[in-house]
Amino acid sequence: MSPIPVKETQAMIAGMEPKLQPGLYAFTLWPEDKEWPVGTRASCVEDEGLSLIVPINAANGDAVAMRCITLQVHSSLEGVGLTAAVSTALAQAGIPANMVAGFHHDHVYVPGDLATKAVDVLKNLQKAADT
């Protein structure tokens, strides 16, 4: 049984426990008639085509190597403010961030060379919300 989703903003931030995932990933356009690569993390259908988040070695063309940080709090899909707080904190630190919401958790994709700094920023945000 899944834990009860957290909906209150401060509780989501205080409980997010950012965890850096192994591997490098890339956002890439993908032909709709082609099989998805093993390890595909997410998809999004846009007017311009199908976008996938795939392991870096499966990406098409020039790809930016991204790391995934999972916010381990089971955030409610009806919760308000977690994405805004995370993206604002990272923006203030000069770190580009791409947010992806899953059913249980939110995931933040950041450039690989800034991943450790991003985790530190998010841990500081978490600590400030836990007071």
Number of strands: 7
What's the pLDDT, averaged over the residues? 93
Q: Might you state the CATH topology name of the largest domain?
A: VC0802-like
Topology pattern, helix = H, strand = E: HEEEEEHEEH
What's the main sheet like?
A: 4 strands, antiparallel
How many distinct domains?
2
Low-confidence runs of at least 5 consecutive residues? none
Q: Spatial order of the strands in the main sheet?
A: 1-5-7-6
Main features:
VC0802-like, alpha+beta, 131 residues, four-stranded antiparallel sheet, globular, 7 strands, three-stranded antiparallel sheet, 24% helix, single chain
What does this structure look like?
Helix 2 packs across helix 3. A hairpin with a 2-residue loop joins strand 3 and strand 4 (49-55). The protein folds into two domains: 1-23 and 68-131, VC0802-like; 25-64, no CATH class. The chain has helices at residues 9-14, 82-92, 115-129, and strands at residues 18-20, 25-30, 42-46, 49-55, 66-71, 98-101, 106-111. It is α+β, with helices and mostly antiparallel strands. 24% of the residues lie in helices and 28% in strands. The two termini are 30 Å apart.
Summarize the structure.
The two termini are 30 Å apart. This protein is of the alpha+beta class and 131 residues long.
